[in-house]
Amino acid sequence: MMFKRFWERLKTNYLRGSPLHRVGRTKTLVSAVVCLSFLSFIAFSYHFLNSSPVHRIANPPEPAITCRMNNLQKSMFTPKDHTSKERLHIGARVLVFVESQYSKAAKQITSSLQYARIDYKLENAGHNLPTLTHADKGRFAVIIFESLEAYVNMDNWNRQLLDKYCQDYKVGMIIFVHSADEYGIEKEKVPGLPLILRYNVAVKDYRLNAFTDIWRITKPGETVLDNIEEDDWVVFEYNHSTYEPLSYAKLAPPPYLNSRYIPDNSTVVCALLDRGTLDGIQRIFFGNDLSFWVHQMIFIDGISYLSHGKLSFPLERYILVDVDDIFVGITGTRMTADDVEALAKSQERLQKEVSNFHFNLGFSGWFYQHGTSLENAGDQKILEYRNKFWWFGHMWRHEQGHKFDQAKLETSMIKNYQFAKEHNIPVMHQYAVAPHHSGVYPVHEPLYQAWKNVWDIRVTSTEEYPRLYPSWKRRGFIHKGVMVLPRQTCGLFTKTLYIDTYPGGRKKLDDSIQGGELFKTFLYNPINIYMTHMGNYANDRLALYTFESVIKFVKCWTNLQLKQVTPLEMGIKYFEMYPEDKEPVWQDPCVYKRHMQIWSANKSCDRLPKFLVVGPQKTGTTALYKFLQIHPAILANYNSPDTFEEVQFFNGNNYHKGIDWYMEFFPVPGNATSDFLFEKSANYFDGELVPYRVHSLLPKAKIICILIDPAKRAYSWYQHMKARGDQIAGNYTFHEIITAPDSAPRKVRELRNRSLIPGIYVQHLQKWLEFFPSRQIFIIDGGRLKSNPVAVMHNVQRFLHIEPHYDYNDYLRFDPKKGFFCQVSSANKSECLGRGKGRHYPPMNETSVEFLEQFYRKNNVALSKLLSKHKYRIPDWLEKELSD
Ligand SMILES: *[C@@H]1O[C@H](CO)[C@@H](O)[C@H](O)[C@H]1NC(C)=O
Ligand SMILES: *[C@@H]1O[C@H](CO)[C@@H](O)[C@H](O)[C@H]1NC(C)=O
Ligand SMILES: *[C@@H]1O[C@H](CO)[C@@H](O)[C@H](O)[C@H]1NC(C)=O
Ligand SMILES: *[C@@H]1O[C@H](CO)[C@@H](O)[C@H](O)[C@H]1NC(C)=O
Ligand SMILES: *[C@@H]1O[C@H](CO)[C@@H](O)[C@H](O)[C@H]1NC(C)=O
Ligand SMILES: *[C@@H]1O[C@H](CO)[C@@H](O)[C@H](O)[C@H]1NC(C)=O
Ligand SMILES: *[C@@H]1O[C@H](CO)[C@@H](O)[C@H](O)[C@H]1NC(C)=O
Ligand SMILES: *[C@@H]1O[C@H](CO)[C@@H](O)[C@H](O)[C@H]1NC(C)=O
Ligand SMILES: [Zn+2]
User: Fold this and answer.
1) Which of 128, 151, 276, 453 could be a cystine partner for 282, CB 3.0 to 4.6 Å?
2) Which residues, including other chains, have CB under 8 Å from residue 331's CB and lie 6 or more apart?
């Protein structure tokens, strides 16, 4: 097995000293993301159009995986439970020290953690330590080092601090050890530990030490027989009882034999556990990186062990294999009666490995009996065996949902429903799959509605959310009561029908099965829904080969318990496990080509705003909104009847209505290039999730906010609530509200919060700046907007790069009666905002002024620092505030 490409060997041309005593590190090779799927060319095209010519193979490939150990031997090794009371002292996340976050090793670690959905913090090894204990999130459970150098070269003070932390809280370390790049150094002692590293070793016959407490998912007993044709392994030598080998291998001849080579069959140690009896710290050392698949299992089990079970993965794996397109397929490539027989036999075999296993067949009734006579007999055989399998609806004529309205979709679904009824097909599990993922995400609302109406669908699956790659970041969400689960690909494409034409060759598929991508989907995903197509159960039955092989392989090497439950139960389990996934995150469908292809042609991303006025409330946002509307190239949203004209999409329940609902608020622009759609919702500014959501849907949008003295804002907001008849505001003075203690009634505390919290500008602005670069955020000094709106509007236009440029002198005029600027009407009259705006009320009580000054002081100082850092002008009021 070749782990690394030849070119990577070339990097060893650098001649450098001992890795443990090197100062800087020059190896910052930016290599491709490690686990990047090889499936990057999945055909999107309709399978009718590009199937290869028919050529049947008499003998489908047989699964060739055999375990070294028999079942009895295997049953001796039961998975270890790592939970101990120590886990109560730590949090559920890890700290990763890297030398460069772009190095290959660092990327492997982070993508593994992402895949396992383990929360982590990345830290540069040369820098100061982060806070090791975190009030909200608990202490780090495991510390990971990209390289041993990062650990031993840490400055003394930090090293002592870190070691002490690990000793005090029983926190373990995982340390990756890499070979010296210079071939001269063969051995080296690790400073401070009775441990010797032997560099640049090639190994073979890799096997695990069965007698250690680490194995949970990993099942020892098998051996990786291939020569591991690399000589960049580090193996460990030691002379202390604190060490316990985790894996062994034999020395192998190096890939490039030289005359000095003397054959040597010694056994060496490739991964090592330090039990902590020497210095109180448990450590796991890896003599190579995570490219080697067995290391990924050891890594996961190691995290579980070192975290005392806090970061343990479940052992159950729920598996569902969907066979899409039953009946659908070009004549000559469809299933015959023999294929159906083979499917049933395979299912019986799989039932021994996966409890309750059933192939889940997706049917499109219109195609029934549309093949050759052999294939039509196959169709009949499937129906004869219908009760052996599970079934789900897949659209009568394999229609792509996004192309049709609700009535058409329902008609199609009803036909398929009736087909199922006529043929007694047992469709039971409130599960459906959309052809080509169409309409599921990006959401086509009529599809969800039609599913509900015709089939009462509660679960579906797609590989398109949030997008196809990287596959380990696929997620689920719930929309309109339908649980959308992530789907995995298994390396079989709609058009790959033969093993001898498998893209990249049979070895590619076998590597994926034997520790590669497909194996890893079993390893990392507690819930696995696989997509396959009928064509791969016909012909040389590649799908049967694939699943039987991978499941055998999983059984040989892991303690995973493979099970099948109904899709509905799977959905419930998924969202119990990952409640944070329930809420979808909408994205702009036009950013990804794949999403565009399954999005209705009737919809247009031109109906998404180019900029947002986000508030906060009571800073002059309504005036700004009116002024913007004067501009002929700026188009505002249509008013919402429920929310005082504002759309309020990103901050509340409206978000669940989806982007179709949102886009209905915008006109179709006459010219999408020159027209600027926008909306103003003043409570976006301080909404917890808003910056993240806005960024997902409108990554290029510009953001405008207005800042006034937060004390004035709080008072104005209170007066606004009072004027609107809010009972609490009516019953309590401003002072009582802002100083309400935590013992006050909940409604009073709520009002206090809503009056005070939006004014903590620095907190909210920071959040926006996490998602948007400062050049996309415009901050208006609210005082200037009031005193000189013409100048402000000039700057706003420049910020937006909007044409034509308008001179607002012609459109705004100071109204001495109102005390602020108003629009000039066509009849040359002042048109001021309604009664509610620019209200007059008594000045704030001195005590309140002092209280608020105190309350906001620290935040205002921080705000001014933040603004300076991002090169914003400091608003006049803030300047004044800070100089007082
Ligand atoms: C191991 O350490 C012990 C005690 O320090 C010593 O007596 C012994 O010689 C060492 N063995 C080897 C093989 O280095
Ligand atoms: C190494 O092992 C092979 C196969 O087991 C054996 O033929 C050979 O003699 C061994 N060599 C040494 C040096 O022990
Ligand atoms: C798109 O618009 C056309 C014309 O209004 C309509 O006939 C068709 O049903 C619409 N398609 C969808 C998917 O709504
Ligand atoms: C839209 O506006 C752009 C920029 O002003 C201009 O170049 C383009 O010709 C306009 N397109 C149409 C169809 O008017
Ligand atoms: C406000 O005060 C009035 C009069 O005392 C009382 O009837 C009402 O229940 C109070 N409202 C609230 C929400 O406390
Ligand atoms: C008010 O805000 C504080 C700080 O964010 C929060 O802890 C508290 O739960 C909030 N109270 C209410 C009633 O919303
Ligand atoms: C519009 O009104 C202003 C002030 O009322 C006046 O100075 C100006 O001449 C008027 N303009 C026109 C075109 O009537
Ligand atoms: C301001 O309000 C507080 C609390 O209601 C009150 O005790 C104080 O007398 C008021 N001060 C002035 C100057 O009105
Ligand atoms: Zn299909």
Assistant:
1) 276
2) 370, 371, 372, 375
Query: 329 burial class (0-12, 13-18, 19+ CB within 10 angstroms)?
Result: buried
pLDDT of residue 227: 61
Mean pLDDT of 27-53: 30
Find the mean pLDDT for residues 109-122. Answer: 95
Residue 365 near residue 326 (C-beta atoms within 8 A)? no
Q: CA-CA distances (angstroms) from residue 680 to 440, 477, 644, 703?
A: 29, 28, 11, 10
Q: Measured on CA atoms in the order 860, 862, 867, 873, is the torsion positive or negative?
A: positive
Integer CA distances (angstroms), 847 to 735, 739, 758, 840, 858, in order: 8, 11, 21, 20, 18
User: What CA–CA distance (Å, rounded) separates 319 from 561?
Assistant: 10
Backbone angles phi, psi at 94, to 5 degrees: -120, 160
Mean pLDDT, residues 544-551? 96
Place of tokens 């530990």: 193
- Taking the CA of residue 753 as reference, the ligand 6 atom at the shortest distance is 1
Beta carbons of 461 and 485 less than 8 angstroms apart: yes
Atom 12 of ligand 8 has which residue's CA nearest to it?
Answer: 845
As annotated, the binding site includes: 716, 837-841
Nearest C-alpha neighbor of 516 from the set 354, 353, 296: 296
Burial of 519 (0-12, 13-18, 19+ CB in 10 A): buried
**Coil/strand/helix, residue 523:** helix
What CA–CA distance (Å, rounded) separates 437 from 677?
Answer: 30
Contact status, residue 172 vs residue 140, Cβ threshold 8 Å: no
CA distance 256 to 156: 40
CA within 13 Å, CB half, 855: 23
* Residue ranges of E strands in 564-681: 611-615, 634-636, 676-680
* pLDDT score of 18 more than 80: no
Task: Measure the CA angle with vertex 55, ends 49 and 57; round to 5°.
Answer: 135
By DSSP bridging, strand 119-124 and strand 93-98 are parallel
Q: Which two tokens stand for residue 390?
A: 């599970």
CB 291, CB 206: distance < 8 Å? no
> Is the shortest distance between the CB of 263 and ligand 2 below 6 Å?
yes
Instruction: Give ligand 4 pocket residues (Cβ under 6 A).
Output: 671, 673-674
Dihedrals phi, psi of 531, to nearest 5 degrees: -105, 125
Query: CA 377, 379, 383 angle in degrees (round to 5)?
Result: 115
- Which domains can be identified in the chain, with CATH numbers? 76-306 (3.40.50), 316-581 (3.20.20.370), 604-883 (3.40.50.300)
* Closest of 632, 673, 612 to residue 810, by C-alpha: 632
Region of 433 (left: φ > 0; alpha: ψ -120 to 50; beta: rest) is beta
Residue 208: strand, helix, or coil: strand
Query: What stretch of H or E contains 123?
Result: strand 119-124
Answer for the pair 342, 541: CB distance below 8 angstroms, yes or no: yes
Query: Of the residues 27, 104, 618, 702, which is catalytic?
Result: 618
Structure tokens given for 328: 């659908």
pTM of the model: 0.87
Chain segment 235-286, per-residue pLDDT in tens: 999 999 999 999 999 998 877 766 677 778 889 999 999 999 999 999 999 9
**Closest by alpha carbon to 392, among 319, 497, 321?**
321
Nearest ligand to residue 728 Cα? 5
Give the tokens for residue 29: 């090779």
686 Cα: distance to centroid of ligand 6 (angstroms): 13
What DSSP line would sit under 68-122, residue for residue? SS-HHHHHTSPPPP---GGGGGS-SEEEEEES-TTSHHHHHHHHHHHHTT-EEEE
- Ligand 9: centre distance to CA 378 (Å): 18
pLDDT at 378: 96
Alpha carbon distance, N-terminus to C-terminus of the chain:
71
Task: Give CA–CA dist 442/378, Å, rounded.
Answer: 36
Give the annotated binding-site residues for 3'-phosphoadenylyl sulfate: 716, 837-841
Give 260's contacts (C-beta < 8 A, 6+ positions apart). none
